[in-house]
Amino acid sequence: MRLVRALEVYQLTGQPISTWQAQHHFAGNEFDTCILGLLLPRTELYQRINARCHAMVDAGLVDEVQRLYADGFDPDLPALRSPGYREIGAHVNGLYDLPTAIARMAQATRQLAKRQLTWFRADMQIAWRAPDLGALRREAAVFWQTGT
Questions:
Q1: Considering Cα of 24, then 28, then 31, then 33, what sign does the dihedral take?
Q2: Contact assessment for residue 32 and residue 21, using Cβ atoms and an 8 Å cutoff
Q3: Three-class SS of residue 122?
C-alpha cells in the first residue's frame, strides 16, 4: 500500500515521496519528547512478521503486484525490489510457488527487522520498553508531569 501511495504522490506532484519527506524531517526540537522503542522477544516478533506476511497476501498483495506489472511498472524499480514485492513478484513471474514466496517474504522481512533494530539501538535517545500498555501509560504520565 505504501508503494501505491508513493506512486500517487509522484503522479500528483512530479516529485518522489522521498523529496517531500526530506523537506519535513522535523529536525527542530521545539518540544520535550520521549522516544520509546517497543522491544518484543525475537520469537514473538518473528511470529508477528510471519502472520503479517500471510495477512498481506490474503489482503491482495499478489493481485497488486500483478496489476503493477500489467500497468508496465518495471520489477527492477527500487520499490518493487523491497521485501514482499520482490518475493511475490518472483511468484507472479513463475519462479516460486506461493508458499515458497511467502516463506521467502517472511525471511526477508525478518532480516530487515533485524537491520532496523540494529540501526535504532544506536540512537541513545530511544528508551526501549516491553509493549506493556499499562506500564507505558504510567511512564507517559510521569514524563508529562515532570518532563523527564
A1: positive
A2: no
A3: coil
pLDDT digits (tens, 9 = 90+) for 38-92: 899 999 999 999 999 999 999 999 999 999 999 999 999 999 999 999 999 999 9
- Number of residues that make up the chain: 148
Domain extent listing, the chain? 33-132
CATH class entry, domain 33-132: mainly alpha
Q: What would the pLDDT profile of 120-133 be if each residue is shown by its tens digit?
A: 998 888 889 888 88
Helix (H), strand (E) at residue 44 = helix 42-58
CA–CA separation, 10 vs 4, rounded Å? 10
CA distance 45 to 99: 20
